Write the structure tokens for this entry.
Amino acid sequence: MKKSIRVAIIFAGLAMTGSAFADDVVRHKIPNSDFPIAQAVEVPPGKTTVYLSGAVPTVIDPKAEKGTIAAYGDTEAQTESVLKSVEKTLDGLGLKMGDVVKMQAFLVGDPARNGEMDFAGFMKSYTKFFGTAEQPNLPVRSVVKVAGLASPAFLVEIEVTAVRP
């Protein structure tokens, strides 16, 4: 076998196994803070990035009037519903919540709170999925208040980016 062909085969083999030698995702904590988000996340070369579309809540009270906030719950309930949906989608792709590296959360002001977004309610559900003993990996995250979402009953929409291990 010619030397150039052997070198090409060696390099091809190294390229195929390169991801096995790639460093893990690095999550930088916020200095002097226990707030459950990462300040920054580094994704090494060779990792596959998976972008999930925004997820919205599911009905949690089928007896409530259809298309109302009561049917979907308050911000805390909607956040939990949305994160369970994200978790299910990730699972279907062979991923876990710990593989999430970036989150964008869109919150609508709750009419029951004089139009203010319920950040505390959001955080109650968020911390069930991130920064726990079972799942300590924290994503970088933005939470923004928006004027509205696809349904007037939705108070929460979340999109995430994950990295395949």
Q: What stands out?
A: The chain is about 30% helix and 25% strand. Confidence is low (pLDDT under 50) at residues 5-22. Residues 3-164 form a domain with the 60s Ribosomal Protein L30; Chain: A; fold (CATH 3.30.1330.40).
